[in-house]
Amino acid sequence: MPFSSDDLLAHLRERGIMAELHEHPPVLTVEAMLAHCGDIPGAHTKNLFLRDGKKAHFLVTLRHDARVDLTAFRQVLGAWGGLSFASADALREHLGVESGAVSPLAAMNAQPGGVRVFIEQSLVEAERINIHPLVSTRTLSIVPATVIDILGDAGHSVTTFTLPQTGSDEPDAA
How many domains does the chain have? Predict the structure, then answer.
């Protein structure tokens, strides 16, 4: 049975891990997250749950404002064939969460090696990151190295990466 948000928070407390918990209305998009959680100190994130042509799954955590070219990103992940977003059924099956609640901590519900976890290097270097503890109505402000340690203890290795350049020096349109 997968961890619930309360189970995960209890697991963190049992390990003596300090994280600030913020409760809020459901946030299913980056825009909604910023409206309700934008004042929480730390780097804000967005998460992608992807699959490749061989049905390998990738859990990717990026800065909330990162732009991703999935074609260029394939090499970063070591993906085979095209990348696409995994289905809502795959989210529940592999990560035990619903859409909008994805975070690197959702890998706690995956079989070790069943989902490859990637975190953008700039987030690893941040003092704190803000991620969901398996539900979209809570946000944890936590030290990034702690997340990596938690996942490592559960048998999940984390790969850090830098986003490839998209080839344009033009700023993104607002």
Answer: 1
**pLDDT digit of tens for each residue in the chain (174 aa)?**
689 999 999 999 999 998 999 999 999 888 899 999 999 999 999 999 999 999 999 999 999 999 988 888 899 999 999 999 999 999 999 999 999 999 999 999 999 999 999 999 999 999 999 999 999 999 999 999 999 999 999 999 999 999 876 554 443 433
Nearby residues of 87 by Cβ (< 8 Å), 6 or more positions away? none
Beta carbons within 10 angstroms of residue 29's beta carbon:
11
User: Residue written as tokens 């490839």?
Assistant: 164
Full domain range(s) for residue 49: 5-161
The residues that bridge with 99 in the sheet, in sequence order, are none
Tokens 């994805």 appear where?
Answer: 102
Q: Does residue 168 belong to any structural domain of this protein?
A: no
CATH code for the domain in which residue 93 is found = 3.90.960.10
**Backbone angles phi and psi of 147, in degrees to 5:** -60, -45
pTM of the full structure: 0.91
> Could you tell me if residue 137 is inside a domain?
yes
